[in-house]
Amino acid sequence: MKLLAPIPALTTPSLQETVDFYVSVLDFTCTTVDEQKQFASIGKDHVTMQLVHPQASFPYNNSGPFDEPVFTGSIYIHLEGIDELWEKVKDKAEVCFPVQNFDYGMREFGIYDNNGYLIEFGQEIA
User: Fold this and answer.
1) Is the distance from CB of 114 to CB of 17 less than 8 angstroms?
2) Which domains, and CATH codes, for the chain?
3) Which of 14, 31, 46, 82 is the most buried (most CB within 10 A)?
């Protein structure tokens, strides 16, 4: 058995607004939009995420009302060029915490997407 990569599936009441956020703020590309299935797929480099409307007909999807994310963790993305990304996004998204060095050897920052999901970015300190 070999695990390849996680692909988070985020619930969103507005596929297009969420696609627009990831495309305009984080330079993702939208690879699939299926209005009938209420599903979209976005990606950048080695990161892929799925966006799913609360009423989409997928077996893992919650069919209840969606007021805000109930995900209690975060999406953590390793990257190269953290300061460049920070400069690009710091005024375009709600900041959870600004870019900073941590004593465990990582330089990180966190933002919220348009739905309130926490997206964290980290780069190893050289």
Assistant:
1) yes
2) 9-57+68-124 (3.10.180.10)
3) 82
